[in-house]
Design a protein that fits this description.
By secondary structure, this protein is mostly helical. The chain is built from 13 helices and three strands, in the order αααααααβββαααααα. β1 and β2 form a beta hairpin.
């Protein structure tokens, strides 16, 4: 195997076939580079395409001994499996030696979620008399209404708002497009904000960007984090709140309300339904109430024993 040639072809596959971002591609290639480091350190001269299950298992043990977290180990294994699936697809190997490899067990950490009352409380602390007040209100209503990533929020274009249809077009990870419903409340707040926005000295290249800073340029992600953190403190919310908290809350409230998981997956732009399933962490009381309300047997009265 020509290592450089193989990695170059694999990089092209990740970019063109999988549609991954530059950061994701770099992560995949770095993980494969770790495998090459291991082979050199252990003086294993076998070509990666000829490695067996037990050798790759030794590699995972080596990774573990480096002191990496379980999540990092799992990510590296995922990258390794992807690489060998590619080699199998390209017929450079006859079988996948990673098929039976298992990564460390991960405890699934549930994301911090705000209640509807807490979101209203946070939004209620925005001072609309300040120049940035209307922008912040519109921005956070859009963030919660559509479940956007912070990068998608700051890059949102006016031309991608389809008011009549009630949708916005989002360019997500890997430049993948999706249409997300937007609430009338968010649209109304955007309307209230537009006169303030249009009074700015908008810089060239930012004419179509919706949310701008006072210099007429696109907001930074860090600025959005800062705005939300300060509002959370002002609202007396003790939870750790970030832009992603709004996205988690959006998804959780939809799932709790009975939304189809596939529809939520589509709106969030998740590639795998497994990622979306984290939002099914419903408490037992909610499940109990759901059964009582909707199950055909739940409301049945006990039969009279004498009948």
């Amino acid at each position: 195997m020509d290592r450089k040639r193989t990695l170059k072809d694999y990089e092209g596959f990740l970019k063109l076939e999988k549609g991954l971002s530059s950061n994701s591609i770099d992560a995949y290639l770095t993980d494969i580079d770790k495998l090459f480091q291991f082979l050199e350190l252990e003086q294993i001269e076998t070509d990666p395409s000829e490695l067996e299950h037990n050798q790759l298992h030794s590699y995972l043990v080596w990774i573990s001994e480096l002191g990496l977290s379980a999540r990092s180990q799992a990510r590296i294994l995922s990258g390794l499996k992807s690489f060998y699936r590619y080699l199998l697809m390209e017929e450079q190997i006859g079988k996948d030696p990673t098929a039976l490899l298992e990564g460390p067990r991960l405890g699934r950490k549930l994301p911090e979620v705000l209640t509807v009352e807490e979101i209203n409380q946070l939004l209620g602390t925005i001072d609309l008399s300040k120049p940035e007040g209307r922008r912040n209100k519109a921005m956070l209503e859009t963030l919660y209404s559509c479940g956007l990533r912070v990068s998608e929020l700051v890059g949102l274009k006016i031309s991608n708002i389809f008011r009549a249809e009630g949708f916005i077009r989002i360019i997500g990870k890997g430049d993948k497009e999706r249409l997300v419903p937007v609430s009338q409340l968010a649209l109304n707040e955007i309307d209230f904000y537009m006169p303030d926005r249009n009074s700015l000295n908008i810089q060239p290249g930012f004419e179509d960007i919706l949310f701008l800073n006072r210099r007429g340029k696109m907001l930074s992600r860090v600025m959005v984090f800062t705005i939300i953190k300060e509002l959370a403190v002002a609202a007396g919310i003790k939870k750790t709140v970030s832009p992603h908290t709004f996205r988690h809350s959006f998804a959780t409230h939809l799932v709790n309300g009975g939304a189809d998981l596939r529809a939520v997956q589509e709106m969030l732009g998740h590639e795998s339904i497994t990622t979306t399933e984290i939002y099914t962490h419903l408490d037992r009381e909610y499940l109990r109430e759901a059964i009582i309300s909707f199950h055909p047997r739940a409301g049945a009265k006990p039969r009279d024993k004498g009948a």
